[in-house]
Amino acid sequence: MTIITPHLSPTLAANEKVLQLRAQGRQIFHMGFGQAPFPAHPRLVEVLQRHATVKDYLPVAGIPALHDAVVNHQARLTGINPEDYHVIVAPGSKLILFALQMAMSGDIMLPVPSWVSYAPQASLLSQNVVPVPTSISADGLTLDPDKLQHAYDSAKQQGLKPTKLLINFPGNPTGVTITDDALTQTAEFCRRNSVTLISDEIYGRLSFDRQYRTASTHFPEGAIVTSGLSKHLSLGGWRLGIGLVPKAMTELITSLNHIASETWSCVSAPVQYAAVEAYQGHADVEEFVEQSVTIHEIVNTYIAQRLNAMGIACPTPQGAFYTWPDMQNSIKTHTFSSSTALADYLLERHAIVTLPGSAFGETDASCRLRLSGCDYDGQAALELLRQVGRNELAQQLPTLAPNVCGALDAFEQFARES
Ligand SMILES: Cc1ncc(COP(=O)(O)O)c(C=O)c1O
């Protein structure tokens, strides 16, 4: 018997390490874990509590009221026709992404860099990853259509079977979003080559320009969208993910429901009722999302600005709560054999937890790190924003987010020393 890779996903592993170190009394600047810091919205908590006694199994794909709330929410954001989609809900979109990979045989094309779990999920399913290079400019992330086609053709020549492409924007790890042109060209590539597009839009509502971009409008017949409550409502632990599958893909939704029925059975009942409330567009919930985006924008833009000011190149984030610095130019005297060695050094010497670029498919030699800008008291940040507004909140970051600012001071020391 062979036991498959016995380690935790890097983000969760980083978080567990921080908990251990903090329990030993060490001061740690935690930039390793992408967990939105805001409290659960009271309206949703009330509905969750009210449904605590609903204890029977619910329909595998989710309750009809939740399906309606989800498609109508997406329709309000993007203009899609709610009638054109099947919906599935699961305990987190991570499971839907896994089920999608499982349901569609063949290999997966992944932009480099990509979120930590896509490639390990492929590997758990004995599928191959076809990497696709990307570039980041001031406009955002570009997936060059020629590079996409080249990656596809070369994979086929090597005997691989690329059948799906997974994109994510605003992106984890980069914090930047895809340009509209890149989205159009990506859809054209998929159509031309009969590749299914999986669009992970979990950070879609956290775009700093407040535009929700979706692959659905570019590729209505062939783009599957996943999302959930974890990021824009800071509800990762409630485990509620959604998937929208074009009606044309009836076989796929049947297969997803089959996988769901043999694995997670259904999403926790009280959570489904709370999710209906979350997707209904109540003004107070929408205001909470808007305030959360404002704070993410202030904190993560500040991180990028300070890094750039100390000579560490970092793209300006356009959404989510990540920054993606390239440490290359700031390392003058040390040599690091890999981004993992660099991340280890930063933890040992400067108490900063980061994730190495290699966890996101970058070459090990790259000096990229993913920083998550979430280590502050979200409740206090919301209260301050309501009291003093965004400009004054930005001024008060050193007291509001001492760990974030402390991490940047530690980076400054690193940049001076190294
Ligand atoms: C890019 C991306 N996709 C999907 C997920 C999974 O989210 P969940 O399973 O909580 O819906 C995450 C969580 O960190 C993420 O960063």
Keywords, please?
418 residues; alpha/beta; Aspartate Aminotransferase, domain 1; Aspartate Aminotransferase, domain 2; seven-stranded mixed β-sheet; three-stranded antiparallel β-sheet; globular; binds pyridoxal-5'-phosphate
Strand ordering within the main sheet: 2-10-9-8-7-3-4
CATH architecture of the largest domain: 3-Layer(aba) Sandwich
CATH class of the largest domain: Alpha Beta
Counting DSSP H or I runs of 4 or more residues, the number of helices is 14
Question: What compounds are bound to the protein?
Answer: pyridoxal-5'-phosphate
Assembly status: single chain
Major sheet details:
7 strands, mixed
Could you state the CATH homologous superfamily of the largest domain?
Type I PLP-dependent aspartate aminotransferase-like (Major domain)
Strand content: 5-15%
Helicity, in percent? 40-55%
Tally of individual domains = 2
What's the gyration radius in Å? 21 Å
Mean pLDDT figure? 94
Low-confidence stretches: none
Q: What is the CATH topology descriptor of the largest domain?
A: Aspartate Aminotransferase, domain 2
Overall shape: it is: globular
The structural class is: alpha/beta
Order of helices and strands: HEHHEHEHEEEHEHEEEHHHEHEEEHHH
Instruction: Count the beta strands.
Output: 14
- Distance between the terminal alpha carbons, to the nearest Å? 47 Å
